Amino acid sequence: MVRNMFRTGFLVRASHTLLTWVVTLILFLHDTDLRRYEEQGELLLPVLFFLVVVLSVLFYFAVSLMDPGFVLTDTVESVVQDLQTSDEEKDLMIPQTSTHRLRRCGFCLLQQPMRAKHCQTCKRCIRRFDHHCPWIENCVGERNHRWSGISASDSWDLWFRVNGFLLAALGVVGVFSVVVVVLLGCHLYLVSINCTTWEFMARHRISYLKNCGHEENPFDRGVLCNLWDFFCICRTVMWEQMYHKQSQNEA
Fold this sequence. Notes:
- Helix 2 runs antiparallel to helix 4.
- The radius of gyration is 28 Å and the shape is elongated.
- The chain is mostly helical.
- Helix content is 52%, strand content 6%.
- Among the domains are: 65 residues; 76 residues, no CATH class.
- It is an enzyme of class 2 (transferase).
- Its EC number is 2.3.1.225.
């Protein structure tokens, strides 16, 4: 892995890592919530944010430096053993009665298994080649196209021990995904009616809204206009003029 770090993608990885830490440093040094929490001695959120950044960088390097499925030898059985696949996977990958003749790569001179391709950037043949990703500066192939999933076991106890971390991670991701989807739906609804969260929650206490009808919003210009103004127009709006204009029209 250390040797792979200094391949042609070293500058890409270094740039991504440097950019990540520069942005993180700015967020901690600039006048942000993270800086204010830190100054007030409330370190829980800053520490969690820092740990998420560290984990993101580690996962980035894990994906960037892992073996995507390099073809290492002409002997197909040796490649399978190198990939540490099960006997069942071997049978699926290498039919005993296969009549397909493996072709030899014109660059690295190795026999290419079916669906393999030579990557001009990595200068290696990749098993089940998908594409070369410039963001991780590594190929996407048989070994890293998907992460290892839930493994089968002989007993439920062993199954939970083997897959416990993955199940916990899926649970956390699922909970946060539901929260994000709900928040997205709520805010899209508020944007579509041109209403802020504060106005929606405290309507009865806001002087310019408490005298309006329950379903009445003086700033609502229709769904399409509201969405267009929110996503496509960046300007300061004189809400007082819009409010008085709407009041006059109703009068």
